[in-house]
Design goal:
By secondary structure, the protein is an alpha/beta fold. The protein has 3 domains: about 130 residues, Glucose Oxidase, domain 1 (3-Layer(bba) Sandwich); about 110 residues, PtsI, HPr-binding domain (Enzyme I, Chain A, domain 2, Orthogonal Bundle); about 325 residues, Alpha-Beta Barrel (TIM Barrel). A hairpin with a 4-residue loop joins strand 7 and strand 8. Helix 4 packs antiparallel against helix 5, helix 11 runs parallel beside helix 13 and helix 19 packs across helix 21.
């Protein structure tokens, strides 16, 4: 077969060369759709209940086989079990049997479809990826109902996994130790497959349309996770070239791991704190393994997903307390709920929105649902006595929102004080700077908080009008765009004048072409994926604050992305070629 070169979105760095494995399932069940009589309703409800119970038992059996070091996969299975045990999930399906007299198979199709539609309009990719998980659970129940065992075909050797999409459910069913790389049609840089790949330290390329139909099983494939390039049936010279790149990168990673405990000081003794972003409590293991200076962002949304009830104050308190205790004395920044109301979950008001990304989400949702917000605030305040805690408010767009949120926090303090409960009265409060309006009024906001955390992903997305998960415009997501650089510089300058700290939180913090710019602006705390910390620390040690400051001065004069990219390359590539050599081909395309 002739060689093909395809271009996708680079999602996890690295090089892989191997045989393709197309993710398919051995069986594809077809559900019979029938109407039933009133006399058969109870029998169909029992069939449905038995199938759900069997699915739960299957998942528990699968969980027991997962190695102890892969706790993130156990957490995914726990979430799936929680969904299946939720009475609301059951009732969504069962009502089609009770009210419309449909057989259990047809009711599953209809009920799962209802749940999918509840998620479909949510712009946040975190929630969009949950659609495939719900579909997965529906298939599992249906297979158990019909008696079909839909198993993933076994992986017998190390392969490059190719799929239309890869769900969290899929990743817990495959033997990840045999996966050299992921290639998918669906997904973006923040999708589940990308996060899993970065966690495992293997390359991934996403966003290649119909990739599972273009590549065949056992074809030789090269995956370049730096540029997003896929080469099908490469020639001998390409194989030799990529083997050399692969060996260099593997050697580089081994060196980084050995240096992971060395602190990040620039050559002129400026200390840069390198913190971690995490989503699940279990990720604290990676934070400690890679010796991050703390947790710069703890996303709390996971605690609210799929539960049969909203988490109680005590449940949240125990989660936050345990995290703070383990990390103490290292700092932990806990971000309050950053999600919208248009999702599955008891206790949440159903909101119909044409554009949820611009709608009732994050702090707006919390201020509309102050009881939910206050419950979380009380839990954080109480847990904060157990460690070095900071509270972070997401998506603040102006002073009014911030002041209203602070009133809720003060109210929570007064309640705890009256109840005689122990809490941290002086808990530092910060805000995410992630929308353009917050940049414009940063001077007013800085007077009301202890720190800023710049969310580069959303700030770039909202400032440039780019959906970073859309493969057609992902190339326009440019952190060195003059508008982005000037906005960040303004925010940092305002924070300095107010005497408050600034953290860069997002992909820019782990981007080797952006880190010198951030240091030159005066940002001394970066927060990124735990396993990216050693590489960024090494890079910091190769730089001086003085040369970074000079670089920023030059970039601020740039009038275009191309010009800024060229300036950065000319100034820093020759100084730290080892750190940047793996990113050069991507950089030169800009």
């Amino acid at each position: 077969m002739a060689k093909k070169i395809l271009q996708g979105i680079p999602a996890s760095v690295g090089i892989a060369i191997g045989k393709a494995y197309i993710l398919t399932r051995d069986h594809d069940c077809i559900a019979p759709m029938q109407s039933i009589s009133e006399e058969l309703v109870d029998a169909e409800l029992k069939r449905l209940k038995d199938a759900i119970d069997m699915t739960i038992a299957n998942l528990k059996s699968l969980k027991s086989k997962i190695p102890a070091e892969h706790t993130e996969y156990s957490s995914i299975i726990d979430t799936h079990i929680m969904v299946l045990e939720d009475a609301k999930f059951y009732e969504t399906i069962a009502r089609y049997i009770k009210n419309m007299k449909l057989n259990a198979e047809w009711a599953i199709e209809k009920g799962i479809g209802d749940i999918e539609r509840s998620f479909r309009d949510i712009e946040d990719e975190f929630f969009k990826t949950r659609i495939s998980e719900i579909k997965f659970l529906g298939r599992k129940i249906l297979n158990n109902l019909i008696g079909v065992d839909q198993e993933i075909k076994p992986i017998l050797s190390r392969v490059i996994l190719v799929a239309h999409e890869l769900t969290p459910a899929d990743t817990v069913e495959i033997d990840v130790s045999k996966i050299m790389a992921f290639v998918t049609s669906q997904g973006g840089k923040t999708s589940h497959v990308s996060i899993v790949a970065r966690t495992l330290g293997i390359p991934a390329v996403v966003g290649i349309e119909d990739i599972d139909e273009i590549i065949s099983d056992d074809q030789l494939v090269i995956v370049d996770g730096f540029t997003g390039t896929i080469i099908i049936e490469p020639d001998e010279n390409e194989i030799v070239d990529y083997i050399e790149k692969q060996e260099k990168f593997e050697k580089y990673k081994r060196e980084l791991y050995q240096e992971r405990r060395v602190p990040a000081y620039t050559k002129d003794k400026c200390h840069i704190k390198v913190m971690a972003n995490i989503e699940f409590f279990e990720e604290v293991t990676s934070v400690l393994e890679y010796n991050s200076d703390g947790i710069g962002l703890y996303r709390t949304e996971y605690s609210y997903l799929y539960k049969p009830h909203l988490p109680t104050e005590d449940e949240l308190y125990e989660e936050y307390r345990d995290l703070l205790t383990i990390m103490s004395p290292r700092p932990v920044v806990i971000r309050t709920l950053d999600a919208g109301g248009d999702k599955i979950g008891k206790g949440f008001e159903k909101i119909e929105e044409a554009n949820p990304a611009m709608g009732l989400r994050a702090i707006r949702f919390c201020l509309r649902n102050k009881d939910i917000f206050k419950t979380q605030i009380r839990a954080i305040l109480r847990a904060a006595v157990s460690g070095n805690c900071f509270l972070l408010l997401p998506m603040i767009s102006g002073l009014e929102e911030l002041l209203e949120a602070k009133k809720v926090i003060e109210c929570a303090k007064e309640e705890l004080q009256r109840e005689g409960k122990q809490f941290n009265y002086d808990l530092p409060i910060g805000i995410m700077i992630e929308v353009p309006s917050a940049v414009c009024v940063a001077d007013a906001l800085a007077k009301e908080v202890s720190f800023f955390s710049i969310g580069s992903n959303d700030l770039i997305q909202y400032s440039l009008g780019i959906d970073r998960t859309n493969k057609y415009v992902a190339h326009l997501f440019q952190p060195l765009h003059p508008a982005i650089i000037r906005g960040i510089k303004h925010t940092v300058d305002v924070a300095k004048q107010a005497g408050i700290q600034v953290t860069m939180c997002g992909e820019m913090a782990g981007d080797p072409f952006c880190v010198p710019i951030l240091i030159g602006m005066g940002i001394t705390t970066l927060s990124l994926s735990p396993n990216a910390a050693p590489g960024i620390k090494r890079m910091v040690r190769m730089l001086s604050y003085k040369e970074c400051k000079e670089l920023v001065d030059n970039v601020l004069k740039g009038k275009s992305v191309i010009e800024n990219n060229r300036i950065v390359r000319q100034k820093i590539y020759d100084k730290i070629p080892e750190e940047l050599q793996f990113y050069t081909s991507f950089f030169e395309k800009q």
